[in-house]
Fold this sequence. Notes:
The chain is α/β, with parallel strands linked by helices. The protein is 48% helix and 14% strand.
Amino acid sequence: MKRTAIVTGANSGFGKLITMRLAKRGYTVIAGVRQEANAKKLAEEIEQASLSGMIHIEALDVTDTQSIQSFQKKLHAYAPAPITLLVNNAGTAYAGFAEEVPVDTYRQQFEVNVFGVMEMTQTVLPFMISGAKIFNMSSISGLMGMPALSPYVSSKFALEGYTESLRIELASFGIQAALIEPGSFQTNIWNTSMKEQMVQPAEESKYTSLYQKMMAHIESQTSSYGDPGEVAELVVRLAEKKRLKRLRYLVGKGVRLSFTAKQLLPWSLWEHIILRTLSSKK
């Protein structure tokens, strides 16, 4: 059977790597890209990789219902082949301290990372049959909170709950949903998105010291960020499995150890470890 995949946010980071690797494995990939300039750049890379016949770029803004509806109409052009894989990868990261982040910023965060996923899933599900899979790109931040990251963290926690319910609802139809939970990797969401969308505390803010420690911690970890190809390879490998035995797939250096520690340790001790780690940063 012809294998057709949809990848949102396909122009960079995990999305681009997943798109390319799926195409190399024989999938026809519908690559959703929001900005025209990014679409042109991606098209050039696809041509250079000799994958033009396997990847079809479509305009898609997951925060715009009209854009999603236009995308849905184009899916009929790929019929009668069903969609066998949906990778909800489009995402962004806002940061800042909960007291100081405008509520509208939280809304913007959820529009991309949560509501965009929900609307895309509703749009694509009618094109799926038994054996199809949905991968929602979450994060280790969907399993544990950190200071100054509450917009991003809360959106990923919401995505986790949504996917858990979705998986159970779809089980009887043979459609499987799962979460991909990367740690820190060399992608734009950390290198650009979060830094540009950080609500920085004012000089007189009571959070200035904690902000400086948090930024120092992030900078100290940058060199150890993983190769995003590891995440792309995991997605492709799981896509080709007949059965996904787990809901959550953690990937990245130290993420499984961190999550296990959070589960097993008393909260007071876990909290102490985080605060002590940050207090050691100048």
